[in-house]
Fold:
Amino acid sequence: MHKVYPFLLLLFLSFGANSASFGQAHKDFDLDRSLRIDFILTGEKIVQKAGLLRLKEEKYWSGTQHSLIWPFEYGTYQIEVYNDADKLIFKQGFSTLFEEWQSTGLPKYGAASFEQSYNIPYPKDDVRVKLLVRKGNDFEILNTWKINPSADNIIKESANQEAILIAGEGDYRNKLDLVFLADGYKASDLKKARKDAKRFGKFLFRNAPFNDYRKHINIWLVHKPSIENGVDEPCKGVFRKTALGSSFNTLNLKRYLSVQEFFKVKDVAAAAPYDFILVMVNTERYGGGGIFNHFSVFSADGPDAGKVFLHEFGHHFGALADEYFNSEVSYEDMLDTTIEPWQPNITTLVNFDGKWPHLIDDGVPVPTPRINKFEDKTGVFEGGAYLKKGVFSPAMDCRMRTNKAKGFCEVCQSGIEKMLLLYVSQNIE
Ligand SMILES: [Zn+2]
Structure:
């Protein structure tokens, strides 16, 4: 538990520095509802464009005042919101399935489009919303939208489903709210959906660092009944009528279980107050996927289902990279080894000072050889993010590397904790 304190200190210092903007949160936003911004990312391997599709008013804003302006820059994309005095009032990062598509060989077949959506607390006055994308160490603007929050064309439709509280006290303000969406569960499968969601919730709370924050986390379930059980498995010619359209073979990768129709996902999730969306798929087949601050998708009954769920949630919530480097899953150019990656659990040693040097004991060499002696040590082990060379991971094994690992390594735990504190810090103060 002692590892928490440096982060507490760090976050409180940065909150202090930004205290004027936190005081202003209520002036700029109605924190009781949210504005959903739906847009499309279209492009090829290098070039991309973003176009606004629609705006929706949604019932809940579940984030904390502290989570409006993140003190770090995780993710390939960033949303920034400015008020009419040109003051930054919101800044968060996220990643996308589109950028994964760009890193595969698929763009050679032609351009593609992906559904994207982001919720911000409901602005009280006109705002400018900037969408930025990472270019090397910097961000460049993809588009800027001027939004009038009183415009007539903002869609106001209430969600069709109900949210069921699975774990926690349900007071969603200042808690971390996770919503599980059941896919491939028929109307008659509600009992199974509840049981499955409870099982994954329990697994989450058994694992560090989530075990220490149990009372600060709510888990919700939304069950939009599917017409058929199961999931699409295109390589077997299996297609099922499910509520969200979950599918294996995402980006032509057999084991990659994901959902492309993100607007459907957002429509269903809107029934609950949520900070992060987890799609639980009613299948026994192994697989899953997780994208930072977008969603995670996992098979409910596959082998090692709990571990896969946790691994994918590591990507989704903790901004963690895969620590494995010998795998059939390989992206052609996922990582530029000449710059320091933004993920907290890998380094190219280009700027290691910003990563985990404070967690390395005296006597542990950097880089650290992968030998038994360092099995339980935090170090800098070559290999990670699908690459054998030029990328380094903090531990010999970790939940972000294998299913055999005991849990998240120390660095991954710290990264997750940093994120947790943005959502629950007011309870801890
Ligand atoms: Zn790790």
